[in-house]
Amino acid sequence: MKVAIIGTGYVGLPTGVGLAELGNKVVCVDKIAEKIDSLNSGKITIYEDGMEELFQKNLKKGSISFTQDMETAVKDADLVMIAVGTPPHPETKEADLKYIYAAAEELAQYLTGYTVVATKSTVPVGTGDEVEAIIKRVNPDANCDVVSLPEFLREGFAIHDFFNPDRIVIGANTTKAQEVLLTLYKPFKGKTEFLLVNRKSSETIKYASNAFLAMKIHYINEMANFCEKAGADINEVAKGMGLDSRIGKKFLNAGPGYGGSCFPKDTNAMAQMGKKYGARLNLIETTIAKNDERKVEMGQRVIDAVKDYKDGKIAVLGLAFKGGTDDCRDSPAMEILNEILRHSSNVSVYDPKAMENAQKLIGDKVVYANDAYEACKSADILVILTEWEEFKHLDLVKLKQIMRHARIMDMRNMLNPKDVKNNGFVYSCIGMK
Ligand code: UDX
């Protein structure tokens, strides 16, 4: 099948690589010339575990190619996927659909034969109707169906998730479009659940899922606050809850608050949609407000911990919004760091993958270290903000020798409290006294 993908970001690129690997002919289009040049010359533009190898293989085979020219990508395509950004509108917090609509306007001109146009980006309920109307206006002869095809790829695990989906949701209002997508996803037949639903349900499923997961994280974080006061242990509580199959073990890790390019944006957009339709989503509204507050509170905890040391040095490990990615967009670590920087200018940071992206956001307000130990040299406190595997294996003896004060604040509950204390550190984490 010839597939055109518009947008080569964290959704478009892994999806393109995955579909090429499944035997499709994929052409990705993007407006940014450097991205296209880089990808065509074999240099991948984002970090995703396991993507490099598949990308190189399919690029060599010619199964995936990149262009700035919409016509080249869309002409003769059986399927066009829109995977452009839907950033939050700075004032209304609604999803800003200008890139989606611009893509629809442009692609409409080049549709030939029957084509399915799928929105892969997370779009508010009813966007499919708008996209359909734009295509009809620009190209009244177009023979196409517009479908919603939500993606559930986690950053850092996008390739894994692409090949191991929990479900494939197809929001198509015609059987012809359903058939095209069932053919595309045939390799997953018998391996996962296919859900054929109407377009608006499909659009809602994506938001409802992300908002639910964000609420689950907010819930466990609130429970962690309770455990800290009551003397319970959130790790034990989460384990006990998660063993109930109705609750499930996943997304019960207490931490500094959720972040990333999806949860904050999607919860806000969902809350706005609730207001728009006159069906207020109070749980989601509270989740958003409390998650925002949490990051300020976490920054304050760090400042309080070093208040007795004059110009105390703070070492921050982890800047990405979660482990396994270089992405700092809406990262809780970056927001906590900004809060810390309001009170301190003696901060050294390290992240295994996200240093470049962090630097674009905060410039030279901090010292960028080459590794965790360099960041911790002469520090008065070590603060872990992102759950990178390598932080689990920090050499505590070495840390004790190089730090000025032996103090660790572990906001991802990564370390073993007994080990840390036995090595002479004052240790604090989330959800324990
Ligand atoms: C999310 C959805 O999981 C995915 O299905 C969707 O397609 C895109 O949005 P992603 O943004 O990559 O994926 O990150 P995710 O792994 O869901 O984590 C989001 C945030 O929640 C991170 O800041 C993470 O650290 C935090 N989190 C997650 C917790 O604090 N605790 C948890 O138990 C799980």
Topology:
Elements: E1 2-6, H1 12-21, E2 25-29, H2 33-40, H3 51-61, E3 64-67, H4 70-74, E4 79-82, H5 98-108, E5 115-119, H6 127-138, E6 144-148, H7 158-163, E7 167-171, H8 175-184, E8 193-197, H9 199-230, H10 234-242, H11 263-276, H12 282-305, E9 314-317, H13 332-341, E10 347-350, H14 355-362, E11 367-368, H15 372-376, E12 381-384, H16 389-392, H17 396-402, E13 407-410, H18 417-422, E14 426-429
Parallel strand pairs: 1-2, 1-4, 2-3, 4-5, 5-6, 7-8, 9-10, 9-12, 10-11, 12-13, 13-14
Helix pairs in contact: 1-3, 5-6, 9-11, 9-12, 11-12, 12-13
The chain binds uridine-5'-diphosphate-xylopyranose.
Residues 151-155, 210, 213, 217, 251-253, 255, 258-260, 262-263, 321-322, 332 line the site of uridine-5'-diphosphate-xylopyranose.
Summarize the structure.
Helices cover 44% and strands 14% of the residues. With 433 residues, it is an alpha/beta fold.
